[in-house]
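=== RUN LOG ===
request id: a7f3
mode: sequence -> structure
chains: 1
length: 501
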Amino acid sequence: MRPNNLTACKCAIIGLACASTWPQVAQGSPPYINATLDQNTSGVGSRAYDINQYGQVVGWIAGGSGHHAAHWYNEQFTDVNDTTHFMLLQDFTIDIAEAYAISDGDQVVGTAQTRLQCPGRTIDVWHAFVMRPAVLTDLATPIPGDAITELWTFGNPCTAYNSVATAISNANHVVGWADVNNAATIRAFLVRPQNGVWFVPPSDPNDDYVNQLMVDLGTLGGAESAAHGVNDAGVIVGYSYLSNNNPPARYHAFMITPAGDTWFADANSDGANDLMLDLGTLGGHNSWARAINNSNQVVGESDTADFNTHAFLWSGGVMTDLGTLGGRSSSAAAINEQGHVVGWAENAAGQRRAFVWINGVMTDLNSALLFGQSLGGLVLTEARGINDAGQIVGFASRPGGGESRPFLFTPATPAQIAAAAAAEAALNEALGNSGGSSGSGGAGGQPIVGTPANLQGGSDPNAPVAGQTSDATLNTCGFGTAAILPVTLAGLIGMRRFRPR
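=== RESULT ===
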């Protein structure tokens, strides 16, 4: 049931008071307060990618001095690249970095660029890092640089170039992907600290400079894999290519449940990880898991049988299609302990919009603001993180293009909802409105919601896909038979690979 335009906005704003007249809103998204994530500068692009339980946020910011990893707390910005330890770690010699995830202990992971002197040439590469909170709070640690660690790759850095740390658990599991020798293949990795140290060099100095704590998680039988999420029990999710005997070169979402302290096993020596579970698809060729909570609920995206790509929720062996906002494609990026999911979805006009999915209802976050709140002309295009308090982070853009901007949405409190309802009622009375709305949201002020795929009406299958970003992690699987599937999480510049379909 959908409300009519005369009552929609009041229900969106009052929420609990109108629940009986708008069941979808009662079950779905609350109204939100929009916070400004300070950047200490203007006219630059920035994005927020993750948020922990204390409201600490990480992402990146681009400015005149470079493209830097970013950290926000209480809406205040810290340039991670300008912290003392980051600058003193001589390995990161180029002014470019991105932060992708943060633990509840304020440990940050991501990737940063460095320049290597190799035989006969100089190369610029990306290396995964993990940073302890001492970088942000206590700059007087004994050894300069000891609060940040470069994780390196699976081979000689002059041939195995790049690595990215994509996620970190509250139990010190860091996952991501790294090149193996000759840089033709990437593999999912896990790193756990040993006696507080995240990097152990090989005992033989003639060996390649490979981190002895970096575990190759293997594949589902194919050549490549990448890890993108991990929970506190060390259960890891991501994607892996299938056996080379399963053409075309398909990749599926996976989940690895460790057996004690073991994350890789190959009893029959077939090259596949026996602990890696294939999560399947929504009927299409490919799927990709992006996040997992502590109940082992997994979210991501999958090709569908009709050659679209939809966000999914996998739980207890069942993959559920979360649908769209009326368009063709969607992708889920994060899930909290309540099972609330965020990501992006196309609307009926083919425009990319940030969404939150709660109790079976997908809501366009652009239409979920509390009365009196404003987006300042921005359009929320992708939601990337959600914590257990329901705070959501992501990024927005201006219609017609321009630099991206980070956003932080916080669910409104009952007092804020009541105050907004009173303010709206007073405004409506002053305007002489008996049932209309002066609020924000969709047509008539109503929140814009989507339904699961099997309940959606038929939208134009040839509708243009407008409003897409160039971001690497959420350009998704199924846009035809020759799509570009990036290997990185979160918009890593210049590191893309063509994925066969």
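=== NOTES ===
The chain has five helices and 29 strands.
The two ends are 39 Å apart (CA to CA).
=== END ===
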